[in-house]
């Protein structure tokens, strides 16, 4: 950590990047709070709807990308896993609904 601080203080372009981040962070505070609030709300909704449903025993998930990739630990059983699931579904392209419609 000390080396990182020395490098940042020694290189002017890194100093500029750190100053820019320090300038931007206060304005991003509102967006970060809104994002966390949305994660909280949708995490609770997901827990109410899908808790215990995303298991290998669920026949609706057979043959889906979710099952093929073995995402069984990615579920809505607890609030922590619900938030991780929301993040994964936001970043990774996993379309469970499309796969379920195709398997019927």
Entry summary:
With 104 residues, this protein is an all-alpha fold.
Task: Describe what this molecule looks like in 3D.
The structure is a single chain. The chain is elongated and about 60 Å long. It has 104 residues and is mainly alpha-helical. It has helices spanning 2-10, 12-50, 65-68, 79-91, 96-103. The mean pLDDT is 82. It has one domain: Helix Hairpins (Orthogonal Bundle).
Overall geometry comes to: elongated
Order of helices and strands: HHHHH
User: What is Rg?
Assistant: 20 Å
What is the first-to-last residue Cα distance?
A: 55 Å
- Integer average pLDDT: 82
What proportion of the residues is helical, as a percent range?
A: over 70%
CATH class: Mainly Alpha
CATH architecture: Orthogonal Bundle
pLDDT below 50 for ≥5 consecutive residues: which ranges?
none
Please give the domain count.
Answer: 1
Strand content: under 5%
State the total count of DSSP E strands.
Answer: 0
CATH T-level fold name: Helix Hairpins
